[in-house]
């Protein structure tokens, strides 16, 4: 059974930083896409950052590019999202997702496996 477990969310003031973690178990494919998504109240879920294994490329949503950094620790089966210079508009539930199709990154949200989400709240 594939499981993704996020952690690291919380409340932070504008300009602050948080690091989200996503530990993956039961997923051992050589080719994959893995990424972070977020959903704010009343808005659609959007892709924040993702990694495509087939090209080794990492992609970012324009509004977070330069502020957020995606990283991986294969030995720990964990991916991270370092978020700096957080703004109130970054407030959302953040989800980690994975799929066996690398091409999903960055064009699709139709990942097969999702975590439960972690709340990030940025106060002004």
Task: Walk me through what this model shows.
It contains one helix and eleven strands, in the order βββββββββαββ. It has 124 residues and is mainly β. Helix content is 3%, strand content 51%.
Annotation field: number of helices: 1
- Specify the structural class: mainly beta
Summarize the helix and strand pattern as letters: EEEEEEEEEHEE
Radius of gyration: 13 Å
Q: Note the beta-strand portion.
A: over 45%
* Main pleated-sheet profile: 7 strands, mixed
Instruction: Enumerate the spans where pLDDT stays under 50 for 5 or more consecutive residues.
Output: none
Shape: globular
Structure characteristics:
mainly beta; seven-stranded mixed sheet; 1 helix; four-stranded antiparallel sheet; 124 residues
Summarize the structure.
The chain is mainly beta and about 120 residues long.
Write the layout of secondary structure elements.
Elements: E1 3-7, E2 10-13, E3 18-25, E4 33-39, E5 46-52, E6 57-60, E7 68-73, E8 78-83, E9 92-99, H1 104-107, E10 113-114, E11 118-123
């Amino acid at each position: 059974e594939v499981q993704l477990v996020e952690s690291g969310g919380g409340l932070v003031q504008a300009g602050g930083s948080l690091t989200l973690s996503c530990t993956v178990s039961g997923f051992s494919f050589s080719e994959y896409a893995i990424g972070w998504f977020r959903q704010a109240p009343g808005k659609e879920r959007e892709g924040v950052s993702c990694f495509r294994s087939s090209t080794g490329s990492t992609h970012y949503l324009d509004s977070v590019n330069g502020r957020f950094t995606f990283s991986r620790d294969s030995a720990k089966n964990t991916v991270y999202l370092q978020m700096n210079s957080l703004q109130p508009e970054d407030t959302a539930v953040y989800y980690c997702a994975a799929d066996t199709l690398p091409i999903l990154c960055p064009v699709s949200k139709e990942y097969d496996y999702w975590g439960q989400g972690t709340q990030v709240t940025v106060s002004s």
